[in-house]
From TrEMBL:
Name of protein: Class I SAM-dependent methyltransferase
Keywords, in A-Z order: Membrane, Transmembrane, Transmembrane helix
TM region positions: 12-34, 40-59
Gene3D superfamilies: Vaccinia Virus protein VP39 (3.40.50.150)
Highest taxon of source: Bacteria
Keyword Transmembrane helix among record annotations: yes
Protein species of origin: Agromyces allii
Length: 351
Protein backbone atom coordinates (compact mmCIF):
# COMPACT_ATOMS: atom_id res chain seq x y z
CA UNK A 1 0.00 0.00 0.00
CA UNK A 2 2.80 2.44 0.86
CA UNK A 3 4.47 1.85 -2.51
CA UNK A 4 1.20 2.53 -4.30
CA UNK A 5 0.67 5.74 -2.36
CA UNK A 6 4.19 6.94 -3.17
CA UNK A 7 3.70 6.11 -6.84
CA UNK A 8 0.39 7.99 -6.97
CA UNK A 9 1.97 10.97 -5.25
CA UNK A 10 4.87 11.00 -7.73
CA UNK A 11 2.36 11.14 -10.59
CA UNK A 12 -0.04 13.59 -8.97
CA UNK A 13 2.51 16.29 -8.12
CA UNK A 14 3.88 16.82 -11.67
CA UNK A 15 0.35 16.59 -13.10
CA UNK A 16 -0.94 19.23 -10.69
CA UNK A 17 2.07 21.41 -11.45
CA UNK A 18 1.51 21.20 -15.20
CA UNK A 19 -2.21 21.95 -14.82
CA UNK A 20 -1.49 24.98 -12.62
CA UNK A 21 1.08 26.26 -15.14
CA UNK A 22 -1.39 26.02 -18.04
CA UNK A 23 -4.08 27.80 -16.03
CA UNK A 24 -1.63 30.50 -14.91
CA UNK A 25 -0.28 31.28 -18.37
CA UNK A 26 -3.65 30.92 -20.05
CA UNK A 27 -5.25 33.34 -17.64
CA UNK A 28 -2.41 35.85 -18.02
CA UNK A 29 -2.56 35.79 -21.82
CA UNK A 30 -6.37 36.01 -21.80
CA UNK A 31 -6.35 39.02 -19.48
CA UNK A 32 -3.78 40.74 -21.66
CA UNK A 33 -5.75 39.96 -24.81
CA UNK A 34 -8.92 41.56 -23.48
CA UNK A 35 -7.04 44.54 -22.13
CA UNK A 36 -7.53 43.84 -18.42
CA UNK A 37 -3.79 44.02 -17.75
CA UNK A 38 -1.00 45.93 -19.41
CA UNK A 39 2.31 44.69 -20.77
CA UNK A 40 4.11 45.32 -17.49
CA UNK A 41 1.67 43.17 -15.54
CA UNK A 42 1.96 40.43 -18.16
CA UNK A 43 5.75 40.49 -17.87
CA UNK A 44 5.51 40.16 -14.11
CA UNK A 45 3.17 37.17 -14.42
CA UNK A 46 5.40 35.46 -16.99
CA UNK A 47 8.49 36.09 -14.88
CA UNK A 48 6.78 34.73 -11.76
CA UNK A 49 5.74 31.64 -13.66
CA UNK A 50 9.20 30.96 -15.06
CA UNK A 51 10.96 31.46 -11.74
CA UNK A 52 8.31 29.41 -9.98
CA UNK A 53 8.87 26.50 -12.37
CA UNK A 54 12.62 26.71 -11.86
CA UNK A 55 12.26 26.93 -8.09
CA UNK A 56 9.88 23.98 -8.04
CA UNK A 57 12.30 21.89 -10.09
CA UNK A 58 15.12 22.63 -7.65
CA UNK A 59 12.86 21.94 -4.65
CA UNK A 60 11.70 18.64 -6.06
CA UNK A 61 15.29 17.64 -6.70
CA UNK A 62 16.50 18.65 -3.24
CA UNK A 63 13.62 16.97 -1.42
CA UNK A 64 13.98 13.74 -3.32
CA UNK A 65 17.75 13.75 -2.87
CA UNK A 66 17.28 14.33 0.86
CA UNK A 67 15.00 11.30 1.07
CA UNK A 68 17.27 9.15 -1.07
CA UNK A 69 18.99 6.22 0.59
CA UNK A 70 22.38 7.27 -0.71
CA UNK A 71 22.45 4.95 -3.71
CA UNK A 72 24.29 6.42 -6.67
CA UNK A 73 21.88 5.29 -9.38
CA UNK A 74 18.86 6.80 -7.70
CA UNK A 75 20.53 10.17 -7.14
CA UNK A 76 21.85 10.24 -10.70
CA UNK A 77 18.32 9.57 -11.92
CA UNK A 78 16.98 12.45 -9.85
CA UNK A 79 19.63 14.75 -11.25
CA UNK A 80 18.68 13.68 -14.76
CA UNK A 81 15.05 14.52 -14.11
CA UNK A 82 15.94 18.01 -12.94
CA UNK A 83 18.05 18.46 -16.07
CA UNK A 84 15.07 17.40 -18.17
CA UNK A 85 12.82 19.84 -16.30
CA UNK A 86 15.26 22.66 -17.03
CA UNK A 87 15.41 21.67 -20.71
CA UNK A 88 11.63 21.74 -20.98
CA UNK A 89 11.55 25.13 -19.29
CA UNK A 90 14.16 26.44 -21.71
CA UNK A 91 12.08 25.22 -24.66
CA UNK A 92 9.00 27.04 -23.37
CA UNK A 93 11.00 30.21 -22.85
CA UNK A 94 12.33 30.04 -26.39
CA UNK A 95 8.78 29.86 -27.68
CA UNK A 96 7.78 32.79 -25.48
CA UNK A 97 10.71 34.82 -26.82
CA UNK A 98 9.55 34.25 -30.39
CA UNK A 99 5.97 35.17 -29.52
CA UNK A 100 7.08 38.19 -27.52
CA UNK A 101 9.28 39.46 -30.34
CA UNK A 102 6.32 39.39 -32.67
CA UNK A 103 3.99 41.18 -30.25
CA UNK A 104 6.05 43.59 -28.22
CA UNK A 105 9.77 44.20 -27.91
CA UNK A 106 9.48 44.68 -24.15
CA UNK A 107 7.96 41.22 -23.73
CA UNK A 108 10.85 39.80 -25.74
CA UNK A 109 13.48 41.56 -23.59
CA UNK A 110 11.89 40.41 -20.32
CA UNK A 111 11.51 36.80 -21.41
CA UNK A 112 15.04 36.84 -22.86
CA UNK A 113 16.40 37.87 -19.44
CA UNK A 114 14.58 35.00 -17.75
CA UNK A 115 15.76 32.66 -20.50
CA UNK A 116 19.37 33.75 -19.95
CA UNK A 117 19.06 33.07 -16.22
CA UNK A 118 17.69 29.59 -16.87
CA UNK A 119 20.45 28.96 -19.38
CA UNK A 120 23.11 29.90 -16.85
CA UNK A 121 21.50 27.59 -14.31
CA UNK A 122 21.34 24.73 -16.80
CA UNK A 123 24.88 25.14 -18.16
CA UNK A 124 26.78 26.03 -14.98
CA UNK A 125 24.92 25.65 -11.73
CA UNK A 126 22.93 22.50 -12.47
CA UNK A 127 25.97 20.39 -13.51
CA UNK A 128 27.81 21.53 -10.38
CA UNK A 129 24.77 20.77 -8.22
CA UNK A 130 24.39 17.39 -9.90
CA UNK A 131 28.05 16.48 -9.30
CA UNK A 132 27.89 17.65 -5.69
CA UNK A 133 24.75 15.69 -4.79
CA UNK A 134 25.85 12.62 -6.75
CA UNK A 135 29.21 12.59 -4.97
CA UNK A 136 27.49 13.20 -1.64
CA UNK A 137 25.19 10.26 -2.35
CA UNK A 138 28.09 7.98 -3.17
CA UNK A 139 29.92 9.09 -0.04
CA UNK A 140 26.83 8.68 2.15
CA UNK A 141 26.39 5.16 0.82
CA UNK A 142 30.03 4.37 1.60
CA UNK A 143 29.68 5.71 5.15
CA UNK A 144 26.59 3.56 5.76
CA UNK A 145 28.48 0.52 4.48
CA UNK A 146 31.47 1.30 6.72
CA UNK A 147 29.20 1.87 9.75
CA UNK A 148 27.44 -1.45 9.12
CA UNK A 149 30.74 -3.29 8.74
CA UNK A 150 32.03 -1.78 11.99
CA UNK A 151 28.98 -2.96 13.90
CA UNK A 152 29.26 -6.45 12.44
CA UNK A 153 32.98 -6.93 12.97
CA UNK A 154 32.81 -5.57 16.52
CA UNK A 155 29.66 -7.51 17.38
CA UNK A 156 27.77 -4.35 18.34
CA UNK A 157 24.11 -4.76 19.25
CA UNK A 158 23.42 -1.65 21.34
CA UNK A 159 22.87 1.89 19.97
CA UNK A 160 26.17 3.64 19.32
CA UNK A 161 27.20 7.33 19.45
CA UNK A 162 26.98 9.16 16.11
CA UNK A 163 29.92 9.66 13.78
CA UNK A 164 30.93 12.22 11.10
CA UNK A 165 30.99 15.98 11.44
CA UNK A 166 33.49 16.87 14.17
CA UNK A 167 33.71 13.18 15.05
CA UNK A 168 35.62 10.69 12.93
CA UNK A 169 33.73 9.21 9.99
CA UNK A 170 32.92 5.50 9.76
CA UNK A 171 35.34 4.93 6.88
CA UNK A 172 38.42 6.16 8.77
CA UNK A 173 37.41 4.13 11.82
CA UNK A 174 37.04 1.08 9.59
CA UNK A 175 40.64 1.60 8.46
CA UNK A 176 41.85 1.89 12.06
CA UNK A 177 39.78 -1.05 13.34
CA UNK A 178 40.87 -3.34 10.51
CA UNK A 179 44.49 -2.51 11.28
CA UNK A 180 43.91 -3.12 14.98
CA UNK A 181 42.36 -6.50 14.35
CA UNK A 182 45.21 -7.44 12.01
CA UNK A 183 48.19 -6.25 14.07
CA UNK A 184 46.66 -6.71 17.55
CA UNK A 185 48.79 -4.00 19.25
CA UNK A 186 48.95 -4.06 23.03
CA UNK A 187 48.85 -0.25 23.30
CA UNK A 188 46.96 2.19 21.11
CA UNK A 189 47.11 5.98 21.51
CA UNK A 190 44.46 8.32 20.16
CA UNK A 191 45.08 12.05 19.79
CA UNK A 192 41.65 13.47 20.45
CA UNK A 193 38.73 11.78 22.17
CA UNK A 194 34.97 11.38 21.92
CA UNK A 195 32.74 8.96 20.05
CA UNK A 196 35.75 7.42 18.31
CA UNK A 197 37.08 6.39 21.73
CA UNK A 198 34.06 4.12 22.16
CA UNK A 199 34.33 2.48 18.75
CA UNK A 200 38.10 2.01 19.04
CA UNK A 201 37.70 0.85 22.63
CA UNK A 202 35.52 -2.03 21.45
CA UNK A 203 38.15 -3.05 18.92
CA UNK A 204 41.01 -2.76 21.42
CA UNK A 205 39.11 -4.87 23.94
CA UNK A 206 38.54 -7.49 21.23
CA UNK A 207 42.31 -7.91 20.77
CA UNK A 208 43.09 -7.68 24.48
CA UNK A 209 44.84 -4.32 24.31
CA UNK A 210 44.61 -0.91 25.91
CA UNK A 211 43.60 2.50 24.50
CA UNK A 212 44.82 5.86 25.81
CA UNK A 213 42.96 8.88 24.40
CA UNK A 214 44.55 12.31 24.82
CA UNK A 215 42.24 15.31 25.12
CA UNK A 216 43.40 18.92 25.49
CA UNK A 217 40.04 20.27 26.70
CA UNK A 218 39.30 19.38 30.33
CA UNK A 219 35.52 19.61 30.01
CA UNK A 220 35.43 17.51 26.86
CA UNK A 221 37.78 14.98 28.46
CA UNK A 222 35.31 14.59 31.33
CA UNK A 223 32.44 14.06 28.88
CA UNK A 224 34.49 11.51 26.96
CA UNK A 225 35.19 9.59 30.18
CA UNK A 226 31.46 9.52 30.94
CA UNK A 227 30.71 8.30 27.43
CA UNK A 228 33.33 5.57 27.63
CA UNK A 229 32.04 4.48 31.05
CA UNK A 230 28.45 4.35 29.78
CA UNK A 231 29.55 1.60 27.38
CA UNK A 232 31.43 -0.28 30.09
CA UNK A 233 34.81 0.42 28.51
CA UNK A 234 36.53 2.28 31.34
CA UNK A 235 38.65 -0.81 32.04
CA UNK A 236 40.02 -0.68 28.48
CA UNK A 237 39.96 3.02 27.55
CA UNK A 238 41.72 5.74 29.51
CA UNK A 239 40.92 9.34 28.60
CA UNK A 240 43.73 11.62 29.76
CA UNK A 241 43.45 15.37 30.00
CA UNK A 242 46.65 16.59 28.36
CA UNK A 243 46.51 20.38 27.93
CA UNK A 244 48.30 21.97 25.02
CA UNK A 245 51.70 23.37 25.95
CA UNK A 246 54.67 24.68 24.01
CA UNK A 247 56.44 21.92 22.08
CA UNK A 248 59.82 22.03 20.30
CA UNK A 249 61.19 19.09 18.39
CA UNK A 250 64.70 20.47 18.97
CA UNK A 251 65.88 23.47 20.97
CA UNK A 252 66.29 25.33 17.68
CA UNK A 253 62.82 24.45 16.35
CA UNK A 254 59.94 26.90 16.24
CA UNK A 255 57.57 26.25 19.16
CA UNK A 256 54.03 25.07 18.57
CA UNK A 257 51.23 23.74 20.79
CA UNK A 258 51.06 20.02 21.56
CA UNK A 259 49.70 17.75 24.24
CA UNK A 260 51.64 17.97 27.49
CA UNK A 261 54.22 15.20 27.14
CA UNK A 262 54.30 14.72 30.90
CA UNK A 263 50.97 12.97 30.44
CA UNK A 264 52.56 10.41 28.09
CA UNK A 265 55.88 9.71 29.84
CA UNK A 266 54.71 6.26 30.95
CA UNK A 267 53.62 5.12 27.48
CA UNK A 268 55.95 2.62 25.86
CA UNK A 269 55.72 0.33 22.85
CA UNK A 270 52.84 2.15 21.22
CA UNK A 271 51.73 -0.08 18.36
CA UNK A 272 49.21 2.22 16.71
CA UNK A 273 48.83 5.99 16.88
CA UNK A 274 45.54 7.46 15.61
CA UNK A 275 45.96 11.20 15.02
CA UNK A 276 42.62 13.05 15.04
CA UNK A 277 43.65 16.05 17.12
CA UNK A 278 44.33 18.70 18.14
CA UNK A 279 41.91 20.84 16.07
CA UNK A 280 43.23 22.49 12.91
CA UNK A 281 42.60 25.97 14.35
CA UNK A 282 45.17 25.32 17.08
CA UNK A 283 48.16 26.20 14.90
CA UNK A 284 49.59 25.68 11.40
CA UNK A 285 50.48 22.00 10.91
CA UNK A 286 48.83 21.39 14.27
CA UNK A 287 49.32 17.61 14.09
CA UNK A 288 52.94 17.57 12.99
CA UNK A 289 54.31 16.84 16.51
CA UNK A 290 52.46 13.49 16.65
CA UNK A 291 55.23 11.49 14.98
CA UNK A 292 58.30 13.04 16.64
CA UNK A 293 56.55 13.07 20.02
CA UNK A 294 55.79 9.32 19.89
CA UNK A 295 58.68 8.09 17.78
CA UNK A 296 60.78 6.94 20.74
CA UNK A 297 57.73 5.53 22.54
CA UNK A 298 56.58 3.63 19.45
CA UNK A 299 57.12 -0.05 18.87
CA UNK A 300 59.30 -1.37 16.08
CA UNK A 301 56.13 -1.83 14.00
CA UNK A 302 54.56 1.52 14.85
CA UNK A 303 51.68 2.50 12.56
CA UNK A 304 50.41 6.10 12.43
CA UNK A 305 46.97 6.77 10.95
CA UNK A 306 46.15 10.42 10.25
CA UNK A 307 42.57 11.66 9.81
CA UNK A 308 41.51 14.77 7.82
CA UNK A 309 44.43 14.14 5.49
CA UNK A 310 42.85 16.03 2.57
CA UNK A 311 43.34 19.36 4.34
CA UNK A 312 46.36 21.44 3.26
CA UNK A 313 47.97 21.40 6.73
CA UNK A 314 47.72 17.63 7.00
CA UNK A 315 49.21 17.24 3.53
CA UNK A 316 52.08 19.47 4.61
CA UNK A 317 52.48 17.45 7.80
CA UNK A 318 52.81 14.15 5.91
CA UNK A 319 55.36 15.69 3.55
CA UNK A 320 57.42 16.90 6.50
CA UNK A 321 57.22 13.50 8.20
CA UNK A 322 58.52 11.69 5.12
CA UNK A 323 61.29 14.26 4.59
CA UNK A 324 62.47 14.40 8.20
CA UNK A 325 62.06 10.81 9.38
CA UNK A 326 63.74 8.01 7.45
CA UNK A 327 62.30 4.53 7.16
CA UNK A 328 58.62 5.41 6.76
CA UNK A 329 56.26 5.00 3.85
CA UNK A 330 52.81 6.49 3.42
CA UNK A 331 49.69 5.35 1.59
CA UNK A 332 46.35 7.08 1.18
CA UNK A 333 43.36 4.74 1.43
CA UNK A 334 40.10 6.36 0.28
CA UNK A 335 38.23 8.17 3.06
CA UNK A 336 35.67 10.96 3.30
CA UNK A 337 38.03 13.46 4.91
CA UNK A 338 41.22 11.90 3.65
CA UNK A 339 43.42 9.37 5.44
CA UNK A 340 47.10 8.54 5.52
CA UNK A 341 48.59 5.33 6.91
CA UNK A 342 52.25 5.82 7.83
CA UNK A 343 54.30 2.75 8.66
CA UNK A 344 57.89 1.65 8.85
CA UNK A 345 59.47 0.24 5.73
CA UNK A 346 60.39 -3.39 6.35
CA UNK A 347 64.06 -3.77 7.13
CA UNK A 348 64.53 -0.12 8.10
CA UNK A 349 66.26 0.93 11.31
CA UNK A 350 63.58 1.79 13.90
CA UNK A 351 65.98 4.20 15.55
Amino acid sequence: MEAIEVSNRNIAVPLATATASVIWLGTAVALFAIGSIDVGALLVLIGMWALGCLGLAILRYARRAARADGLHDEIADLAGRVSADASRLESVLQQLEIAGQRQDGRIYDAVADVHASVKRFQDVQLPALRRHITNAGINDSEQVMAWTELREVLGVTQPMPPLRGWAASPDILRIVVNRLLRDRPALVVECGSGTSSVWLGLAVRKVGGRLVSLEHDAEFAARSRELVASYGLDDTVEVRHAPLVEYRRTPQSEPQPWYDLRMTDDLREVGLLFVDGPPAATAPDARYPALPAFLDAGSQDLVVILDDADRPDERSTVERWLEEFDGFSARRPPAEKGAVVLERVRGSDPA
